[in-house]
TrEMBL record:
Subunit structure: Associates with the 50S ribosomal subunit.
Encoding gene, per UniProt annotation: der
Shown chain mapped onto the complete sequence: 4 to 166 of 497
Domain of life the protein comes from: Bacteria
Residue span(s) of domain EngA-type G: 3-163
UniProt protein name: GTPase Der
Length: 163
């Protein structure tokens, strides 16, 4: 069994963009299993010769706020159960949301290895907007732009080392 890496985070933070960035560049074999894993995407991929299965826990497109929060938690809990390593994606443009704090709490309790990414960081003013994320009590953040490929290889080197 290859190690499993799950990408989690609230909607629109860039999970799918990150998933595509990592897998597309490696010509990954993307498998969707209809039904059981309705709104997740799996790909077997590799980085620095480490093979792993990447999961995109996307597809939270519900409008009702309560269902929405519950669904996110459920997805994250399932993903975390399956995963060896979890990547929590945060949004450097919209900033910290209560959902992020919720998810960070769930992940902390899981005692899995977690990487914290602040996505959509494309210039220095966004870099300076990051201190609010330190209230999550996390030691290390990776600031990245999944869309533009900034910071991804440094993050992926560390991720591959942890597998
Ligand atoms: P998901 O809901 O977490 O899967 O988020 P998506 O990957 O679908 O991205 C949500 C939106 O954010 C899309 O409009 C993306 O183009 C945009 N986005 C994703 N990554 C970045 C990034 O690194 N920088 C910027 N500026 N936008 C991004
Ligand atoms: Mg998505």
């Amino acid at each position: 069994m290859k190690p499993v890496v799950a990408i989690v985070g609230r909607p629109n933070v860039g999970k799918s963009t990150l998933f595509n960035r990592i897998t597309r560049s490696r010509d990954a074999l993307v498998d969707d299993f209809p039904g059981v894993t309705r709104d997740r995407h799996y790909a077997d991929t590799m980085w620095n010769e480490k093979e792993f299965t990447l999961i995109d826990t996307g597809g939270f497109l519900l409008s009702d706020d309560d269902v929405f929060a519950t669904e996110i938690r459920q997805h994250v809990e399932i993903a975390v159960d399956e995963a060896d390593v979890v990547v929590l994606v945060l949004d450097g443009r919209s900033g910290l949301s209560p959902f992020d704090t919720d998810l960070a709490d769930i992940l902390r309790r899981s005692e899995k290895k977690v990487f914290y990414l602040i996505n959509k960081v494309e210039n220095n003013s966004q870099r300076h907007a990051m201190p609010e994320f330190y209230s999550l009590g996390v030691d290390k953040f990776y600031s990245v732009s999944a869309e533009h490929g900034i910071g991804i290889s440094d993050f992926m080197d560390d991720l591959a080392n942890a597998l």
